[in-house]
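Incident log, structure service

09:12 report received: a user says their structure output differs between two submissions of the same chain.
09:20 pulled the input from the user's history:
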Amino acid sequence: MSNLEQQILDIIKAKPGQLAKSIAAQLKSDRRLINSILYGQLKNKVQQDKNYRWYLKEVINVGGQDNKKPQQLIFGMSFNMSFFFAQ
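09:34 re-ran on a clean worker, output below:
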């Protein structure tokens, strides 16, 4: 991962929901370059909402290892993931 990619992730982590224009301004970079990286190299690490704001893709295991019905917290919503696992 390049230094610029890590800086983009750090900015989004510090303040989720920023526009590419804002990220570019903070890095004193071109918005087109930032968008290229967000849609390219970072596509599996970030996602964009309908208002073009960027967020990290983070999946947090809520259930723990002993839980027979693991759940995941995705952007504040909890889902029972037991249908993914064989009983």
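09:41 both user submissions now match this output. Likely a transient worker issue. Closing.
09:42 reviewer note: The first helix runs from residue 3 to 14. Residues 3-56 form a domain with the Arc Repressor Mutant, subunit A fold (CATH 1.10.10.10).
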